[in-house]
Design brief:
Layout: H1 2-13, E1 20-29, E2 41-42, E3 44-57, E4 62-67, E5 76-79, H2 93-104, E6 113-119, H3 129-145, H4 151-164, H5 173-179, E7 185-190, E8 195-200, E9 206-212, H6 224-238, H7 252-258, H8 265-289, H9 293-309, H10 315-326, E10 331-337, E11 344-350, H11 354-369, E12 374-378, E13 385-386
Parallel strand pairs: 4-6
Antiparallel strand pairs: 1-3, 1-13, 2-7, 3-6, 4-5, 7-8, 9-11, 9-12, 10-11
Helix pairs in contact: 2-3, 2-4, 3-4, 3-5, 4-5, 6-8, 8-9, 10-11
Length: 387
């Protein structure tokens, strides 16, 4: 890959002299969905697929961007004087947002750069291509200009840029999982205080398989912000009767005790998902520590049911992928992952069942939805790095 993208950089920008190559992974969340902005736990891991970047400093303040994934857009130009989000700037709003966020923290860029990207994450799949680009950009800026920031800072800067530059009210999980990824491990992260531990994922005779629904969705224009608002209202209602800072502070029992304080049945279901999903995530990590992959899979399944019925973020595409997966012998667990409304599912599948899983789920999906799903057998990888 390194040779391919360096050759492309040379073709696009005239020469590759002085250019450096970098990589930041994508991520998949194994369990703990829509809990990260509700003060709960999440359990994501970095993947070996992600975003490759070639970057080179310039003598002036010009920014030139090129993506091999959007080659038809050609080189998109901007400058350090014009770090504003424009619709026509398209994907470059993600790296520009990170540069802007560095400036907001008092770390102005001394010069512009040429940046070429090539993502191996399916675009719009819910494996965090945008967060991968954000962390990659931050990593490049630190490496180029010697900024004093940790990988955890890179995650926070990426989240800040997505919230305040790109207008997506995302939680910290995606950027954190990518910036802090560790091979063979998922990250058990408490989003309330960013305390975390690495938990090894040892799947002796099974692999993680991601199915992309190929239904495109944009986070900013999905119902993501609406769900977040519903949870914030429910929290404010609960705070009148119980002393909590976030929905993630409640146990299932406490939720059942106080839920009548929530004024609408819809908000009750939204809050119930946030509370129960957080507790499922805690139980799932305990199960892994005891090497109980079967229980982990059952909790994944229960997570999907809650996301479908209480949080209502799945849709026919994701439901079809998951419900067909549940029918296949050798599937340990399957659920939607990411924000929902399209994107991906994540399944743990016994090695001997993988081919049958892809064939039968793929066939049923094509028949029902009318177009194909894509399947990826993935490995858990490390965080961002120079290559």
């Amino acid at each position: 890959m390194k040779d391919i993208i360096l050759a492309k950089f040379e073709e696009v920008f005239g020469s590759a002299s002085g250019a450096k190559v970098y990589f930041a992974p994508g991520r998949v969340n194994m369990i703990g969905e829509h809990t990260d902005y509700n003060g709960g736990h999440v359990f994501p891991c970095a993947l070996t697929i992600g975003t490759y970047g070639v970057a080179r400093k310039r003598e002036d303040d010009k920014l030139r961007f090129y993506s091999m994934n959007f080659a038809q857009r050609g080189v998109i130009e901007s400058s350090l004087q014009d770090l504003k989000p424009y619709k026509e700037a398209n994907w470059t709003n993600y790296p520009k947002g990170v540069m802007w966020a560095f400036e907001q923290r008092g770390m102005a860029l001394p010069c512009g750069m040429d940046l070429l990207l090539n993502g191996t994450i399916p675009n719009g799949s819910g494996l965090s291509s945008s967060a991968s680009v954000e962390v990659l950009t931050g990593y490049i800026l630190r490496d180029f200009f010697g900024f004093d920031v940790t990988n955890q800072d890179l995650a926070l800067i990426g989240q800040y840029s997505e919230n305040h530059f790109n207008g997506v009210n995302c939680g910290i999980m995606d950027q954190f999982a990518i910036a802090m990824g560790k091979k063979g491990h998922a990250i058990f992260l408490d989003t309330a205080d960013l305390s975390f531990e690495y938990a090894p994922i040892q799947l002796e005779n099974a692999k993680i398989v991601i199915a992309s629904s190929n239904k495109k969705r944009g986070l900013g224009d999905s119902k993501y912000n609406e769900r977040r608002g519903e949870c914030e209202t429910a929290l404010a209602e609960l705070q009148k009767v119980v002393d909590i800072k976030a929905l993630g502070d409640l146990t299932e029992e406490a939720f059942e005790q106080y839920q009548s304080a929530i004024g609408s049945e819809v908000r009750r279901r939204r809050a119930k998902h946030a509370v129960y999903e957080n507790q499922r995530t805690i139980k799932a990590v305990e199960a892994l520590k005891k090497n109980d992959v079967k229980l982990f899979g059952e909790l994944m399944n229960a997570s999907h049911v809650s996301l479908r019925d209480d949080y209502e973020v799945t849709g026919v595409e994701l439901d079809t992928l998951v419900e067909e997966a549940w029918k296949v012998p050798g599937v340990i667990g399957s659920r939607m992952t990411g924000a929902g409304f399209g994107g991906c599912t994540v399944s743990i599948v016994e090695n001997s069942a993988i081919d049958n899983f892809i064939e039968s789920v793929g066939r049923a999906y094509q028949e029902k939805i009318g177009y194909a799903a894509d399947f990826y057998v993935v490995e858990i990888g490390d965080g961002p790095r120079a290559l």
